[in-house]
Amino acid sequence: MTLIPIPEGLQTKVCVLGDHVLEEIPTHFRQNWPGKTPVLIADENTWAAAGRQVDQILKAAGLPPAQTHIFPGTPKIHADYAYVKQLVPIEKGYVPIVVGSGTLNDLVKRSSFEAETGGYMCVATAPSVDGYTAAGAALLVDGFKKTVPCPAPLVILADNAVIRTAPMPMVAAGYADLAAKIIGGADWYLAAGVGEEPIDPIPWNMVQKNLRKWLGNPEAIKAGDSEALAGLFEGLANTGFSIQYYIDSRPASGSEHLFSHIWEMDNLMYQGDCPSHGFKVGIGTLISTAMFEELFSHSQEEMARICDTMPETSPEKRKAQVDALLEGSPIHKAALDVSLAKLKTGEALRKRRATIVAAWPELKEKTSRQLFPFQEMRSKFVAMGCPVNPSEIGADLASLRRAVYGASMIRKRYTILDTLMEVGLFDQVFDSIVNSGKYFTI
């Protein structure tokens, strides 16, 4: 049994992965919520995977759930705030136990906060996301994807017997979500290098110290090797802990997640279903990797010349770009505010470009050491069964263009998208990614 270490001061108090862990649910429940009664939240798929067994264990231990709420398994529910409103009255006066993965966990995370339940327990059914342990819930609110503040689960339990039988696409999605932290680290190097956001070594090490080890053997993960699966779960858990510690998703999220946010807000579909968050983030990881390779193919001398000659983007032009892409969408005004707030012009842009040129050798060295080369990252995804072309998640050229350009408009967090905008290479790099044949089949 693995008791995953939790840094001091975090909201989560218990995180356990091992054999026969489901049997420990009553003990952990009574220790953390003495005298309280549970309510059980699942969907039809997670009910079959573990929910029914959890229900039986609770009843046998004298803790029968006051209510059991089971969402449909098909079509899959989305992380929409509307479902939070459904759950709040169910949870009032009780303690939720959610049996499930990303979406269900995020819905209960926020609803338990609003219902003032004193926390909740998550029984994980697949190593599919880092959100088990993260503070905040990634939800669609009035059509806009945002991280809504709320505490992480107090107790997280994962039983090997359940995790081993998780559908392989969910495991592959978790692998892709963990691989995205490679890009998150490279983007943080950029942000620190230009003076936007220094790296905090504590959450950095929670994610990055063992990241390559956790990602190192996708074939073993796909084969169901217990040790490899445990490493994947541990990596995702530690990523969530880093978000709790930093009180922000910077340690776990970079440009790759921003593409996914656009696709999620646009309700991207593939073969009649919504691709998993992990698969969208995986394609985003490959896009960002290609962007880094294209950007840092330039020498310092070439970058100095580019920064001297590329025209700046005026506020009027940037507004026109945002309007053309997002006008009429629920995120239009917010994207316009963000885009204009972080746009640099005049002397501010000249200083930023000078900073980028001066830091170029160090940025190139650090990001090169951080990243997997594109073809190596692609090979890991192929071995794991993750999609490697935008078309495999339903993104055609128009959808890809909207995601890449829209991603540069929706968050203040500094990433490679901002570097490309500031040096004037955004269009050139995007065209190379989609037209060169080196990266994707579009």
Descriptive report:
With 442 residues, the chain is of the alpha/beta class. The protein folds into two domains: 2-166, Rossmann fold (3-Layer(aba) Sandwich), CATH 3.40.50; 169-233 and 250-435, Up-down Bundle (Dehydroquinate synthase-like, alpha domain). Helix content is 56%, strand content 9%. It has helices at 25-32, 44-60, 81-91, 102-114, 160-163, 168-193, 201-208, 211-215, 218-222, 226-246, 255-265, 277-295, 300-309, 315-326, 332-342, 346-370, 374-384, 397-407, 416-423, 426-435; strands spanning 2-3, 14-18, 38-43, 68-71, 95-99, 121-124, 137-141, 144-148, 155-159. The strands form two sheets. The protein has a seven-stranded mixed beta sheet with strand order 1-2-9-6-5-3-4, sandwiched between helices. A two-stranded antiparallel ribbon has the order 7-8. α6 (168-193) packs across α10, α12 packs antiparallel against α17 (374-384) and α12 packs across α20. The model has no long low-confidence stretch (mean pLDDT 95).
Residues in helix, %: 55-70%
Calculate the mean pLDDT score and round it: 95
CATH architecture annotation name of the largest domain: Up-down Bundle
Q: What is the number of helices?
A: 20
CATH superfamily of the largest domain: Dehydroquinate synthase-like - alpha domain
How does the overall form come out from the CA principal axes?
globular
Amino-to-carboxy terminus distance:
45 Å
Strand order of the largest sheet: 1-2-9-6-5-3-4
- Enter the CATH topology name of the largest domain: Dehydroquinate synthase-like, alpha domain
Structurally, how many domains make up the residues?
2
- Ranges where pLDDT stays below 50 over 5 or more residues in a row are none
- Largest sheet features: 7 strands, mixed
Count all strands and give the number.
9
Strand content: 5-15%
Order of helices and strands: EEHEHEHEHEEEEHHHHHHHHHHHHHHHH
Instruction: Provide the CATH top-level class of the largest domain.
Output: Mainly Alpha
Counting helices, strands and paired strands, the structural category is alpha/beta
* Rg estimate, integer Å: 22 Å
